[in-house]
Every structure is written in C-alpha cells, then in structure tokens.
Amino acid sequence: METLFRANSVATKILSSMPRAVAITTHCIDRVLVSKLVKRRIVKITRYPNTFRIRKMEDEAIVERLTQIRGIGRWTAEMLLIFHLGRPDVLPADDYGVRKGFAITYDRELPSPKELAADGARWKPYRTVASWYLLRVVERATARRVMPLAEEKPS
Fold first, then answer.
1. Catalytically annotated residues
2. How many CA atoms lie within 13 A of 103 on its CB side?
3. Which among 41, 46, 73, 141 is placed 20 to 30 Å from 12, CA to CA?
4. Which ranges of 24-126 does DSSP label H, i.e. alpha helix?
C-alpha cells in the first residue's frame, strides 16, 4: 500500500505542477520513478478532453466520469479528488488503509466499504481529513510493532 501511495503522490505532484495536462509527455513521465500502472493512469487522465472542466463538477460526478476511462477505478478517481483537486469531503471507503485505520481506532473488525461509508457519514464535510487520520493510525500501529513503546519502570 505504501509503495502505491507514494507512486500516486508522485503522479499527483506531476499533475499539479504542470500548467496544462497536455504538457505531460511520455518523456516527462518516463523520467519520474512511478510504476507502469500509474504512468498509464496519468496518460489516460491527461488525454481526457474535459480534464480542466472537472474542477467545477461535483465529487461524485467526477468519479463517475473518470471511471468510464478504462483502467481508472473509483480509488484512482478519489485519490485525484483528494491530492490533485484538494477536495475536503472525500472518504475513500475502498482503500484498505483507511478501512484498517477505522478498525484499529474503533476496535472492530475490518469494515466493508459500505459499512465504512455509512459510519463515515458523520465526518461530513471533512471526510478527507478523517481519512488522513485513519491512515496515520495504521502507520503508528505498524511503527509500534517494529519499535514498541518503552515500558515505564516503576519508581
């Protein structure tokens, strides 16, 4: 998950740093260390004729439109909403890390995407921030397994 997250972050940085989506060339993408899958997604999204019109669209309409492109799924569209368009109310319920963070935080079993979406409705209109915190919970839990907190010595 971390590698894909890093690759997607790189892809969104590329998209956000370019003044026009057309400016992203194959040569530019090849110079960046991203997976072939992410390269294909970038090219598909940037070749999409309405790339710049999506900024004015509703979140769900953007997801619906982008998922019509072969190889672009809901998760990719939601990551574009979060990292490229800076939308504050996106809950990537299909993301395993977000689901795992929810399970750890609320001491429950791993929720299905539908369960997470239903429970996550209470975080509206800041579900993107909640997602970020849930991902940090997983990072901290993983870090503690690698390097547990030192136990306090009795005085």
1. 95
2. 14
3. 141
4. 26-31, 36-47, 59-66, 74-79, 96-105, 113-120
CA distance linking residue 65 with residue 42, whole number of Å: 15
Q: Per this entry, what is the length of the chain?
A: 155
How far apart, in whole angstroms, are the C-alpha atoms of residue 90 and residue 135? 14
Q: Which residue would you say has higher pLDDT here, 136 or 52?
A: 136
Of 78, 70, 84, 66, residue with least CA distance to 37 = 70
Residues 53, 92, 36, 2, CA torsion sign: positive
pTM of the model: 0.62
- Retrieve residue 76's tokens: 């990719």
Is it the case that residue 3 has pLDDT exceeding 50?
A: no
Residue 49 has pLDDT above 50, yes or no: yes
Take residue 113 and report the two structure tokens written for it: 């995407």
List pLDDT tens digits, range 80-105: 888 888 899 999 999 999 999 999 99
